[in-house]
Design a protein that fits this description.
4-stranded mixed β-sheet; 77 residues
Length: 77
Amino acid sequence: SYFYSDFCHWCQKEKAEVLEQLGQEGYKLKPMNVGEKPELGQQFNVTGTPTFIASNGDRLVGFQAKDALKAWLDQHK
C-alpha cells in the first residue's frame, strides 16, 4: 500500500516521477490518502508520507527513486 497526502510535496513528486512509470511497467500499489482519511494513518501507524507498507508489514518511508522502490517492491511480491 502507498500512504500519501495531497498536501505532501514529496508524495506529488513520487506520483509524477516514479509511480506512473512503475504503473506502466505493471506494478500496482493500493493508494491510501491519509490527508482525507487520517484514521488510515492511525490504523497503520503512518507518521509521515510518503510511506509504503508491504503485506508482511515491512515499510519504506520517504521519497524513493524509481530503482530503489522497484527493487523493494520486487522483494515483497
